[in-house]
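Hello forum,

I keep getting stuck at the same step: I have a sequence, I want structure tokens, and every attempt I make locally crashes halfway through. Rather than fight my setup again tonight, could one of you with a working pipeline run this one for me? It's a single chain of 339 residues.
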Amino acid sequence: MRRSDRVIEPLSVVQASAIEIGSGPSWLVDGLWPNEGVGCLGGMPKSCKSWLALDLAVSVASGTAALGTYAVPSAGPVLVLAAEDPPATVRSRLDGLAVARGVSLESLPLHVVVEASVRLDTLIDQQRLAATVEQHRPRLLILDPFVRLHRIDENSALEVSGVLAYLREVQRRHHVAVLVVHHSRKAQGGEQAGLSLRGSGDFHAWGDSNLFMRRRRGGLELAIEHRSAASPEPVPLALELEAGPPHLIVSTPAPTVPASDELKARTTKELAESGLPKTQEALRSRLGVRLSRLTAVLRELEREGCVSRTSAGWVLTAKAQHKPGETELGTAGTQPSKG
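Reply #2:
Ran it on my machine without issues. Output:
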């Protein structure tokens, strides 16, 4: 066919009003990482970046809260490409994190790529990684660290953008969240955390979310940036070395959004009337509220011992087995009777 005879297909276009309106990001890890989101986990060497990446891996695979604080609404498989640490070291860390979570590593859908070398700037390894993702269908793909996965010039926007565009294609084609562990520059100053990522500014611009580990006054601090959600205040972390196997913890309680008594009452009423476990998404749909509000309510009810999470969803505990619509504060908007 001559070039002049080639049929040119127009770009896909829809009426603006036909685009579904979102209610904010859907979270893979509440407040930390969005469903099917891409981005970087950055920081200086020895800032526990890999510890946090593996913590997220165990949390998503097991459905347990990341850092013991950030809920995982829907667990799923995880694929880790650890290009710097030997497999035995990765296994040892994952074993410890699983113990800290109270789960068995053998029971988790968590897989580790053990190739001696993977280069994401080559077509053959791009194809092999995409085929691996297709085979294991992970919800989260972790690449740690970026510097060991290529031979490009990280300061070249053209070369960096080619690899990041490939990872974005993998994310969209396979509906997987992609977290890339990347080093930061030495001079950080007071600049926005993501801007400290080493190399081209494309790293920062590419991310739907970026996490950034840094040392502050002898401790660790996690900065969180989102494209489509408010970025919270930095969170102080610590590597716990005494209470069980090494694992990262939030060193002070993370701030939570105050939960309204009315929404707490509606949530417990919905669970009581159902009589069956309900997922967070099912509750959000029934109650017609934003996911962030419902997450805050469920966390508060869980702290009060009124609800608990099972593999099938949220359920009322024995403590909360009152009449439908009642909590310890009574029905919505009323005080409990004293008579």
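The chain is about 30% helix and 20% strand. If your local run keeps crashing, start a new thread with the error log.
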